[in-house]
Amino acid sequence: MTRVETVKLWTERLQRFEQAQMTVAEFCTAEGVSQPSFYNWKRKLRSARDPKASAVAKFVPVSFQATPDRPTPAANHASATIELPGGVRIRVEVPTDSPPNPLRKDQP
After folding, report:
1. How many beta carbons lie within 10 A of that of residue 35, not counting itself?
2. What's the CA gap between 9 and 44, in Å, rounded?
3. What pTM, to 2 d.p., does this model score?
């Protein structure tokens, strides 16, 4: 079976599931397929229709630099606050390799 035929088969299968009054386990048994295959194809076909559905969160490097108008919170430290939906805040403080900011008045 070609890839195109397989995609068509699973597209039709998932449409049948939407119409069926069965659980995933019952449907998969009736179709002779495994539940992991069912969920895998459901994810693949959804992400093919909606690119945002397959978006994966990625970590990106972040660098902090003190500026005269926004000095670091403490000598040789940088911080950031991440605000998430629902009011959750995550504060991150990390040591830096930079010398203390000479523009700060509260440093020795």
Report:
1. 13
2. 13
3. 0.47
